[in-house]
Design a protein that fits this description.
By secondary structure, the protein is α+β, with helices and mostly antiparallel strands. The protein is built from three helices and seven strands, in the order ββαβααββββ. 14% of the residues lie in helices and 34% in strands. The strands form two sheets. Strands 1, 2, 3, 4 and 5 form a five-stranded mixed β-sheet that branches. Strands 6-7 form a two-stranded antiparallel ribbon.
């Protein structure tokens, strides 16, 4: 997305529970957007609460991992960014978080992550390349 990971601290966004949909499900094109993007993501399932933790302690809270697909209404996101407003409407809509099964384990998975939309591969990379 053109950001320098060394110049900016990481930030996070959330998806509401009704955004989660099982991998392979047929999803309707969402209303109010003309620019829907699909991005493969590594989903981290947190099993316990914690705060002010070391990296090692934080990794101990991980319950497991899943392959996910983050759907984003880019036009709504761009408008929100331009107005310095939250991105919630562009990220947290129904069926905007496609997820495979969560596989228990603390170790970060290795291998490839791929996004396919209507049978066409739109993203294919090694997990080690993710920021």
């Amino acid at each position: 997305m053109g950001h320098d990971p060394d110049a900016e601290p990481p930030f996070f966004f959330t998806k509401p529970a009704d955004a989660v949909v099982e991998s392979g499900a047929r999803i309707a094109y969402p209303r109010a957007t003309a620019d829907l993007h699909h991005v493969a993501e590594l989903v981290v399932a947190i099993g316990r609460a914690g705060k002010e933790l070391s990296e090692h302690e934080a990794m101990g809270l991980v319950w497991g991992y899943a392959a996910g697909n983050d759907l984003t209404r880019r036009d709504l996101q761009a408008a929100a960014k331009a107005a310095w407003r939250p991105w919630d409407m562009s990220k947290g809509f129904d069926a905007s978080a496609v997820m495979g099964a969560i596989r228990p384990g603390e170790a970060v998975p290795q291998g490839r992550i791929r996004c396919s939309v209507d049978g066409c591969i739109t993203q294919d990379a090694d997990l080690a390349e993710m920021i």
